[in-house]
Design brief:
The chain has a domain of about 130 residues. The protein contains 9 helices and no strands. Helix 5 crosses helix 8. The two termini are about 40 Å apart.
């Protein structure tokens, strides 16, 4: 019997509870993601496909029989393929930008301003920490509290606690990232980021209230 058949038999066994099956499934997925991240299977596969497509499109571009319109389209497609990244890379880039900005803020000494012009100029500078807190800070705090509760308070079996912590961490990560990403699409309001912070806080509070209402109805 293959490993796949043994795994399928384990999951289809009616004697095992649903929480235990979900816990094992989460741990398997997390383990697969970790192994892939360490060994780079997906990365090398994606790179090979990009190189293969690059070579094919380059042949079309340098071919003297290719018309001008097709050559331009091939060049654009080649550039798009080489620059394409998975969607979750965009989320990670947003958080990378946030942490870099926080590091720069700590290293930079804020100059004292005495004139109205300088104060107005500083007011238009976006504070990444304030932006993050106003857009998804409450979700991040809730996530940390839930994880700590499952570590120190929960009486579930260890395997279920581990699975629950992984699930909650992933869920909070995606929710906070999505909120930050969506509010990041809003341009600066009235040339002052303070209005964006207020709007972000309203949207964040509104989304939490919506979750509570939907959860109560369900």
């Amino acid at each position: 019997m293959s490993a796949f058949d043994s795994l399928a038999e384990w999951f289809t066994n009616s004697g095992r509870t649903l929480p235990k099956k979900l816990a094992v499934a989460v741990i398997i997925l997390f383990g697969a993601f970790t192994v892939n991240d360490l060994l780079g299977f997906a990365y090398f596969y994606r790179t090979d496909k990009k190189v293969e497509s690059f070579e094919k499109l380059t042949k079309i571009i340098v071919d003297t029989t290719t018309d001008a319109t097709s050559r331009v389209k091939a060049e654009l497609l080649r550039e798009e393929i080489m620059c394409r990244q998975p969607v979750y890379f965009s989320f990670l880039n947003i958080f990378g930008k946030f942490w870099r900005s926080m590091s720069e803020i700590k290293k930079t000494t804020i100059p004292r301003t005495t004139t109205t012009t300088k104060i107005a100029a500083n007011a238009s500078i976006r504070n990444e920490f304030m932006f993050f807190v106003s857009s998804s800070g409450i979700y991040a705090i809730i996530g940390v509290l839930l994880v700590l509760a499952h570590i120190f308070v929960s009486r579930q079996p260890v395997i279920q606690r581990i699975a629950a912590i992984i699930l909650m961490s992933l869920l909070i990560f995606f929710v906070t990232t999505a909120m930050y990403f969506l509010t990041n699409l809003i341009p600066v309001l009235f040339s002052d980021w303070a209005y964006n912070y207020m709007l972000n806080a309203i949207l964040q509070a509104g989304s939490i209230i919506l979750w509570l209402v939907l959860g109560h109805k369900l």
